Write the structure tokens for this entry.
Amino acid sequence: MKGKLVIFTAPSGAGKTTIVRHLLAHIENLDFSVSATSRPKREHEEDGRDYYFLSPMDFRKRIENEEFLEWEEVYEGQYYGTLKSEIERLWAEGKHIIFDIDVKGALNIKNTYPDDSLAIFVKPPSAEILFERLRNRGTETPESYRKRIKRATLELTYEDKFDVALLNDDLDAALIQAEKIVGEYLENE
Ligand code: 5GP
């Protein structure tokens, strides 16, 4: 039997990565879909754990070879995508799969597997709070911060397109809520 797909999406900075990590630590038989990206590796990130870091040329070659289930140029010149081989690897291990992915990629996967996926949009309390969080994260250059604000503004308009909107105002409450939603979804075989 193929595992189910749990897709987490949100504007950058809404806290979805924290929620996804929490679920991985607390829900059995759930594993992370490691995406490929052409963006530079951040300090503390590990190749093969956080992302498969590819050169832009390698990424484009794999697009041509149709190796991706979906891919997006999320920021100008920075590609992100889900490799088909990654999903097959996790299914072969009998796992349910969780994704941390942008809004368009999330809709693509949802449309490819409508009956086997749950798509959750993590919603920040407000656009202002989201921008503030992004500013305080300290991982971005001014240029990349500017790109992220532009992108987040677009992504905020996507909320209605997903199965569930999960408000991340108080993080602890959001974690409990996420565990409940995903736990119930996976139990209902
Ligand atoms: P970051 O650079 O902060 O790690 O990620 C930037 C954005 O790209 C986030 O919204 C993240 O969820 C998204 N992303 C990560 N992996 C993928 C992927 O495989 N496909 C798509 N479409 N977006 C992704």
The longest helix spans residues 171-187. Strands lie at 5-9, 30-32, 35-37, 51-53, 68-75, 78-83, 96-100, 117-123, 164-167. The chain has a mean pLDDT of 93.
